[in-house]
Specification:
Layout lengths: L7 E8 L7 E5 L5 H13 L1 E9 L3 H16 L6 H8 L5
Antiparallel strand pairs: 1-2, 1-3
Length: 93
Amino acid sequence: MAGLESEKTMFEVYHDTAYSGAYEVVYYTELQDYNKETAINRALAGEHFVDGYLRNHSKEEAKKVIRSLLERMNSGEKITPDAFLEALGEHLA
């Protein structure tokens, strides 16, 4: 059974082809009014890689996994979207 919307964090990983050339992540449900438009526009300008929802009770651990995966990808390692989500495993909502 799916949890309440407030119990999960929506994220997207994208390839930032317009600015940094790196793989980046945006946590949509954590954006504030001051940075929302910029973050969304950057993600839209990039190439979508993967998205999903993180369980809030393990969100900080999930963010560490995402940071590690992004470091590997930005160093040239090829990771598929399925492998990315598999690495997040139980952190996904």
